């Protein structure tokens, strides 16, 4: 089975391509980022992902390779597209990105291929892509097969999570199912439109749950009560509350974006989603406002520990640590930042420098390394990483 993955060197495409190659597929990762292509072909990974580098070395021995040459698409039986609909500067879904990408590769598509869309798309996008291709005389089979993996756990969850296949024809479904059956997972058939909503609902639901936790945290904090003590008592052996997450900065490339897309798709009538955006995106403002009410920030140096959007990751996309940094930089004497994994931020300093110079610390991303931090300085720890209480 010959597979070409468009966007094949990214967080979604590379684990998928590596895993398929190790399942005896002929896989080529096509990507426009030459640096990432070179890194992948050298046997290294351009980002952190548990188990990926070991898997990549094995995949390369099985013929896996990356390329910047789109002509590779012509030889594929299955083309998997890892390009979705991002938000533009006005926070509206930017449909031009995915349609432009399809147009760019259309010369290399043929009617014998299966085109699988994998990333989040605006509702109805799959159907519109099919119509656009028909207008230029291209009729590949098309399905929408959303990924729902947790970043950092892709190599595991590709083999454990059920795969939804949104397809209008039996042929598109059967060919898609044959591919994903290689992972040994359960297959669920829907229409493409239903699969598009599955993806959006999945991320919006997670975002709403995190918003509930974050608002509970702010309410408890306003009352001078430790939220995590309340949550621990609430969830202990009580199954109806076991899905209440802990508080923390809720960010990353998907949750906010997909919640916003779902709102736009419903003419901005998404009360819970819009409230979740206000709560989660407003948490840095809340913390800065609390700090400014208690301290003369112009005389204070703040140290932010963790600039990635989540723990044990080097991914800074949409990280709220940078929002809180920007807010504090306008009021504080100085803001220092540290992250053991992030490589694309020249402003980072060593942990020792922060511990020596910061007056107050803020846990931005709950990396495990910070659990061993020894200091008597005040720490704003919404995540409750250090188990020291989280009221401010």
Give the helices and strands, then pairings.
Layout: E1 2-6, H1 13-21, E2 26-30, H2 34-41, H3 52-61, E3 65-67, E4 78-81, H4 96-105, E5 114-117, H5 125-135, E6 141-144, H6 154-157, E7 163-167, H7 170-180, E8 187-190, H8 192-222, H9 227-235, H10 255-265, H11 271-294, E9 301-305, H12 320-329, E10 334-338, H13 351-357, E11 360-363, E12 379-380
Parallel strand pairs: 1-2, 1-4, 2-3, 4-5, 5-6, 7-8, 9-10, 9-11, 11-12
Antiparallel strand pairs: 6-7
Helix pairs in contact: 1-3, 8-10, 8-11, 10-11, 11-12
Q: Assign the structural class, choosing from mainly alpha, mainly beta, alpha/beta, alpha+beta, or little secondary structure.
A: alpha/beta
Count of DSSP-assigned helices: 13
Quaternary structure annotation: single chain
Radius of gyration: 23 Å
User: What general outline do the C-alpha atoms trace?
Assistant: globular
Order of strands in the sheet with the most strands? 3-2-1-4-5-6-7-8
Q: Please, what is the CATH homologous superfamily of the largest domain? A: NAD(P)-binding Rossmann-like Domain
Overall CATH class of the largest domain: Alpha Beta
Count of spatially separate domains: 2
Question: Runs with pLDDT <50, length 5+?
Answer: none
How big a fraction of the residues is strand?
5-15%
What string, H for helix and E for strand, traces the elements in order? EHEHHEEHEHEHEHEHHHHEHEHEE
Could you report the average pLDDT, rounded to the nearest whole number?
96
Kindly identify the CATH topology of the largest domain.
Answer: Rossmann fold
Helix content: 25-40%
Largest sheet: 8 strands, mixed
* Amino- and carboxy-terminal Cα gap: 57 Å
CATH architectural grouping of the largest domain:
3-Layer(aba) Sandwich
